[in-house]
Design brief:
The structure holds two protein chains of two kinds. Helix content of chain A is 36%, strand content 22%. Chain A is an alpha/beta fold. Chain A has a six-stranded mixed β-sheet, with helices on both faces. In chain A, strands 3-2-1-4-10 form a five-stranded mixed β-sheet, sandwiched between helices. A five-stranded parallel β-sheet of chain A has the order 6-5-7-8-9, sandwiched between helices. In chain A, a hairpin with a 4-residue loop joins strand 11 and strand 12. In chain A, helix 8 packs across helix 10 and helix 13 runs antiparallel to helix 14. Chain B has one domain: Rossmann fold. The longest helix of chain B is centred in the C-terminal third of the chain and has 13 residues. Chain B has a five-stranded parallel β-sheet with strand order 2-1-3-4-5, with helices on both faces. Chain B contains six helices and five strands, in the order βαβαβααβαβα. Chain B is globular and about 40 Å long. In chain B, strand 4, helix 5 and strand 5 form a beta-alpha-beta unit. Classes of the chains: A alpha/beta, B alpha/beta. At the A-B interface, loops of A face helix 2 of B.
Chain lengths: 456, 139
């Protein structure tokens, strides 16, 4: 055995470890332990590492062989401050989500005192400040920088606004002693989305500042690096699995559905261009790599939303709802057969609704020349592969039943959901690990991913 | 008036996809130093306003050749005012109403809707440029 890498996900509920034999491209062990982030992230990490070490049969693990991603301590908390809701603010939102953030709130136009209080209440790790095309509106970005400078908010500001306003934004904030970083404008002109630079800066801030700020520096005794937020690792894995690398082909366009206790994430790596002559008329293009997060769709937290949606969709009956209300709380794992079935139904609703919100839709426009089809968002009907991950799918007895929620529905034909994709389940819980390995050894990571994802 | 750094928004409004005229106009304005944001065909009225807010545009030039302009642009000036764009110049041109009638009627209708300049189809591009420079100079 040449080299074993330990890939850690410091999660908010569980800390997971996957041990990978880099030469044989095999998974040698995986373990998980309850994270006790409220008290100390170390306990769960040490427990999971110890278990994985035993499985592999090593005497000791060198720190250099351990890398991690993290969504512990609330994940990467962000708010976005922008100008027009459908333009720069939307671009900022896409950039933040693509950088793996947990986006708490978005503010359009000029910030006022009440907005500042709201931001302070969230106390985000990063404020993404956008607004104005290059050479376009600069007053709003400057006003917002001035407001943030005058406040007692300590969050790091990443300014990806009008290029012309950036230097002044930087000096305004610096003069008030606020930490600030600059990134390329997320929307340098109308109809152009440039999110890569701010994604890079956000990730860099995460690695250099946030991990320490969350009191996680002790982790560094065990882990060589916390390289990215967990959602970014999953997004990286999706991209790698889709595009392939070097000689190793990918699976083509891909969707990843991640149903969790508190949120449901959907990632798509696809152009989503219209397939049958619909007209695409968006002020802002859709990103090729797109992540959406539904903060109201979790199978444990905010259960009420799922119950209401489940009833209206006819997936849950009265008895299910009573059972869910009385027996499920954030710490419950399903015990009995009926509870497992209930859990599966909840996950099904989450995947169905999250994908409905992620995909594009067709709208009818009636004009002098008759009916016209206009597409808003991505057409994902032809997407060939859908991967399910997250506890609620991975541990479901029938993951296919949960994943079928993503399918195109003849009763709602305007929603451009996948029609006949091949389903895969991340049943070894390794997507994040593939994304982490993808940084240093992409070809190996891709082969391991293709080997261990289970086709349904 | 130096057009350098001045941004204008162009496009055809509503369901109209006749973009040749507005493309020629856009090209001409670019050649004469304007920064032109081209929204092209089938542009909802609100998109002109969003684009103008984000780019700090000095003028919005709307083209409509399918006769439905009056319907598409009802309340347009009010929406601009509401969005803080009260000072942005509004120009409109094209086949603004259906049927044979005196073009002066069109001009009156669209002036009443709040447009600063109203042009018939086939207007000379030079004339628009001259008006634009002169109107911007007064601001």
């Amino acid at each position: 055995m040449e080299q074993v890498k330990f890939l850690v996900d410091l999660g908010s509920t569980f800390t997971k470890v996957a041990a990978v034999d880099m030469e044989g491209e095999r998974i040698l062990g995986r373990s998980q332990a309850y994270s006790t982030v409220d008290t100390d992230v170390m306990a769960g990490l040490l427990e999971a590492m110890e278990e994985a070490r035993k499985q592999v049969g090593l005497a000791a693990v060198a720190r250099e062989d351990v890398v991690a991603c993290s969504s512990a301590a609330g994940g990467l908390k962000m708010v976005c401050v922008g100008l027009v809701p459908d333009l720069s603010l939307k671009a900022g939102e896409l950039a933040a989500l693509g950088a793996g953030a947990k986006l708490y709130q978005c503010f359009s136009y000029e910030l006022n005192r009440a907005d500042l209080s709201a931001i302070k209440a969230v106390s985000p790790d990063i404020i993404l400040l956008v607004g104005g095309t290059d050479g376009g509106n600069r007053d709003v970005a400057l006003h917002n920088a001035r407001m943030l400078a005058s406040s007692d908010i300590r969050s790091i500001v990443v300014a990806a606004c009008n290029r012309v306003a950036q230097e002044e934004v930087e000096s305004l904030l610096q003069a008030a002693g606020k930490p600030v970083r600059l990134a390329d404008n997320v929307m340098p002109e109308i109809g152009r989305l440039e999110v890569e630079s701010s994604r890079r800066v956000i990730r860099d801030v995460f690695v250099t500042n946030i991990v320490k700020a969350k009191g996680m520096d002790k982790v560094m005794g065990v882990v060589s690096e916390v390289v990215m937020p967990t959602p970014t690792a999953v997004l990286n894995a999706a991209r790698l699995l889709s595009e392939g690398v070097g000689e190793e082909p990918g699976l083509g366009e891909i969707m990843v559905v991640d149903v969790g206790g508190a949120t449901t994430d959907v990632h798509s790596v696809a152009t989503g261009h219209p397939v049958e002559g619909a007209l695409m008329k968006n002020l802002l293009p859709e990103p090729y790599v797109k992540r959406t997060v539904e903060g109201d769709l979790g199978v444990r937290h905010n259960l009420d939303t799922l119950l209401i949606l489940g009833e209206s969709k006819g997936i849950l009956d009265k008895q299910d709802i009573e059972e869910a209300r009385s027996s499920l709380n954030p710490k419950t794992l399903p015990q009995s057969g009926p509870q497992r079935l209930l859990d599966m139904k909840l996950a099904r609703i989450a995947s169905e609704v999250a994908v409905e919100r992620h995909v594009g839709r067709l709208e009818d426009w009636y004009g002098p020349s008759g009916r016209m089809l206009v597409q808003k968002g991505k057409d994902l009907r032809r997407i060939p592969s859908v991967i399910g991950t997250g506890g609620a799918i991975v541990f479901a007895r029938d993951p296919k039943m949960v994943l079928e929620g993503v399918l195109f529905d003849k009763k709602a034909p305007n929603l451009l959901k996948p029609e006949s994709p091949r389903f895969y389940v991340d049943n070894r819980y390794i997507l994040y690990a593939i994304g982490l390995l993808g940084n240093s050894a992409p070809e190996k990571a891709l082969r391991i991913g293709k080997q261990y994802l289970q086709a349904l | 008036m130096d057009a350098e750094n001045l941004t204008v928004i162009t496009g055809t409004v509503g369901q109209d996809s006749h973009t040749i005229g507005v493309s020629l106009l856009s090209r001409f304005l670019k050649e004469n130093g304007f920064n032109v944001v081209e929204l092209r065909g089938l542009t909802p009225p609100e998109d002109f306003i969003s684009a103008a807010r984000e780019t700090d545009a000095a003028a919005i030039l709307v083209s409509s050749l399918y006769g439905m302009g009056e319907m598409d642009l009802a309340g347009f000036k009010d929406k601009c005012t509401e969005a803080g764009l009260g000072n942005v110049l509004l120009y409109v041109g094209g086949y603004l109403k259906i049927g044979r009638h005196d073009w002066k009627e069109d001009e009156a209708v669209f002036k009443k809707l709040g447009f600063d300049r109203v042009y018939p189809p086939g207007v000379e591009l030079d004339e628009v440029l001259k008006d634009l420079r002169s109107d911007l100079g007064k601001r």
